[in-house]
Recover the amino acids of this structure.
């Protein structure tokens, strides 16, 4: 394999990885810290993509469209948490899975009702729709570099937010001992509602950024959710650090697996990785608690 | 006595009315994927079918048409159950629709066992064209292999020597490659099967770039095609390698792929740009009704409804039995929006295939322009395995 192919594929793998991280971050937060299995998390990704595609047609500015899609998805997340998910916090996992599976079907049909069953068009203009030279004679799509940069920035921001701010501290404390932090006079539910909404917004960001590369259609959330679940399991449930490391690992292994391994193994490389991790470290690579 | 007489009169009137009503109505079952990830195609079929019935004044064969719409959710078992209920409980004479081959294979036996007729509007698996052909089954659209076979013929004509082949790893993907290879005579640079529903093709595109083939042949239906073509164009490969596709650039995905599809060539037996009176009228009334350009799925459903109408009329405005109706289906009163069309002895179409190219129309929308005719009155490869003989009309 030539060095330029290696570089190009590394970029591809990292870019796929950070996109998975954006989705997995919210998922792991809700799963690990709020103890809720939200299978409908992929629907926020879909919602972000649909909102972005719709807004882009009217305002033409890429960044403004991304911002609107992210805020609107975050708001939808807050609304959903309040209306549908709060009663599920204390229920067993099976109830949560059943209810959120129903939400997936609901959101898929909702997009069909609002936007029709035809996939939406997302065409970028100008620099974003072109390629730049990244050295070694490779020209690489600008939009993939943008995804990569945004993913790294968001990961950094989340890391600082969780470790350095008071809200981050409350989230960590609430996760460790919900009753105790409540007794100290902190409104735990409010903190969690905010966390849920941020998680939804991040999935919306992933959807918006992915829409120039991938099809914007009903059901697009499920295909990516499977990867996000794998990332969360490999990284350790509830762990941001784990989600970031595992997302990059999954992105790279998926890309290089398809490039180097025989077809059958290339397709299942990621699943083999998950099986191996579950066997040796069932708690994940970077467990959140202890 | 008087009461009894009135009662008897009323009773016989009711019976007479009931009979009259029964004779004046034709029940047609319509099964397609109306939910789930295949819903785009299922809804195209339904829209095309409904448009034809509406244009025929809500009638098929001069009888009031009662269309019983059922959702197979993209699942064979749901489709089979719907078909069984349609023929057993609802007493539908004709069942039609079905966009997926695996659903079709589950549905057809249920209809054939009840001695009714199934008319496929899209899927046409080889087994139903060959050994399992039946007088209860007709395919309006195609046998799955014929479109890639036409592509093979075209690639021979262009003189492609080193072809790179890509398709998703599932039954239809393998069929589309097998069909191509039946006619394609040149060499194959590589044959790559990607995961069904794959999102990111960057690794495969890098392999493609380093292989430097003469041409690329792809079969990526639905969302996979949108992902693939966008990424192909972003990687700058679309301008380096000529791209030939089958079932990959129709109007269900073309608006979503956008400019990334410009210049892609494909083969088909119908296009929204096919130049004949009937087709022009269909495309413009479909656009007026649904505000979008019709896809081949909608077109075949439209043709299918009109074919049912023509066959019922040829059969004396009734369904009769599956045998009578099959004979009527072969009578050539039906005019397809595809132009020349007739049924082969295996009840699959004999039709022409065209070369299409994605270009912009006068309004700047992407359409499949017809650039050449590839073959005339082309029959599928499986007709020899079918034991049916040509019905005598």
């Amino acid at each position: 394999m030539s060095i330029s192919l290696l570089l190009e594929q590394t970029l591809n793998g990292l870019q796929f990885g950070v996109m998975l991280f954006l989705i997995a971050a919210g998922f792991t937060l809700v799963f690990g810290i709020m103890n809720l299995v939200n299978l409908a998390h992929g629907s926020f990704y879909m919602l972000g993509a649909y909102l972005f595609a719709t807004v882009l047609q009217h305002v033409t500015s890429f960044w403004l469209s991304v911002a609107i899609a992210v805020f609107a998805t975050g708001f939808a997340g807050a609304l959903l948490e309040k209306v549908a998910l709060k009663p599920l916090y204390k229920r067993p996992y099976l109830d949560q899975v059943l209810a959120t599976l129903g939400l997936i079907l609901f959101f898929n049909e909702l997009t069909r009702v609002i936007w029709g069953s035809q996939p939406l068009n997302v065409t970028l203009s100008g620099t974003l729709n072109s390629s730049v030279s990244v050295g070694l004679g490779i020209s690489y799509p600008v939009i993939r570099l943008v995804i990569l940069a945004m993913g790294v920035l968001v990961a950094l921001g989340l890391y600082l937010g969780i470790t350095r701010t008071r809200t981050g501290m409350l989230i960590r404390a609430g996760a460790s001992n919900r009753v105790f932090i409540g007794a100290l006079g902190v409104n735990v539910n409010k903190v969690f509602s905010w966390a849920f909404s941020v998680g939804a917004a991040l999935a919306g960001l992933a959807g918006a950024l992915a829409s120039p590369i991938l099809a914007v259609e009903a059901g697009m959330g499920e295909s990516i959710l499977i990867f996000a679940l794998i990332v969360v399991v490999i990284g350790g449930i509830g762990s941001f650090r784990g989600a970031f490391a595992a997302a990059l690992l999954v992105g790279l292994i998926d890309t290089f697996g398809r490039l180097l391994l025989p077809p059958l193994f290339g397709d299942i490389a990621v699943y083999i990785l998950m099986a191996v991790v579950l066997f040796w470290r069932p708690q994940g690579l970077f467990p959140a608690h202890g | 006595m008087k009461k009894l007489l009135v009662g008897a009169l009323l009773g016989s009137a009711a019976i007479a009315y009931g009979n009259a009503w029964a004779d004046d109505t034709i029940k047609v079952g319509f099964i397609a994927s109306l939910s789930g990830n295949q819903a785009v195609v299922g809804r195209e079929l339904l829209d095309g079918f409904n448009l034809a019935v509406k244009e025929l004044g809500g009638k098929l064969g001069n009888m009031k048409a009662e269309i019983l719409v059922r959702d197979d959710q993209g699942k064979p078992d749901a489709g089979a159950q719907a078909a069984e209920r349609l023929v057993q409980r609802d007493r539908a004479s004709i069942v039609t629709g079905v966009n997926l081959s695996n659903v079709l294979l589950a549905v057809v036996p249920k209809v054939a066992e009840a001695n009714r007729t199934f008319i496929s509007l899209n899927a046409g698996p080889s087994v139903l064209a060959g050994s399992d052909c039946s007088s209860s089954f007709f395919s309006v659209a195609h046998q799955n292999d014929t479109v890639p076979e036409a592509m093979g013929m075209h690639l021979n004509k262009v003189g492609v020597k080193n072809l790179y082949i890509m398709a998703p790893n599932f039954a239809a993907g393998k069929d589309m490659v097998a069909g191509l290879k039946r006619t394609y005579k040149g060499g194959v640079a590589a044959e790559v099967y990607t995961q069904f529903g794959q999102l990111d093709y960057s690794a495969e595109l890098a392999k493609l770039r380093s292989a430097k083939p003469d041409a690329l042949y792809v079969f990526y239906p639905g969302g996979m095609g949108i992902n693939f073509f966008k990424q192909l164009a972003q990687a700058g490969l679309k301008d380096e390698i000529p791209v030939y596709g089958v079932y990959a650039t129709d109007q269900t995905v073309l608006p979503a792929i956008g400019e990334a599809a410009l210049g892609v060539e494909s083969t088909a037996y119908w296009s929204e740009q096919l130049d004949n009176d009937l087709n022009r009228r269909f495309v413009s009334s479909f656009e007026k009704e649904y505000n979008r350009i019709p896809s081949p799925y909608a077109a075949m459903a439209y043709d299918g409804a009109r074919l049912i109408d023509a066959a019922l009329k040829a059969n004396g405005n009734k369904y009769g039995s599956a045998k009578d109706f099959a004979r009527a289906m072969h009578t050539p009163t039906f005019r397809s929006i595809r132009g020349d069309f007739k049924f082969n002895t295996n009840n699959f179409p004999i039709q022409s295939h065209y070369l299409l190219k994605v270009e912009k129309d006068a309004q700047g929308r992407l359409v499949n322009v017809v650039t050449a005719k590839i073959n005339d009155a082309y029959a599928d490869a499986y007709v020899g395995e079918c034991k049916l003989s040509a019905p005598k009309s």
Notes: The CA atoms of residues 15 and 148 of chain A lie 5 Å apart. Chain A has one domain: 3-218. Chain A touches chain B at residues 2, 5, 8-9, 12, 16, 109, 112, 117-123, 129, 131, 139, 141, 143-144, 212-220, 223-224, 254-256, 258-259, 263, 267 (CB under 8 Å).
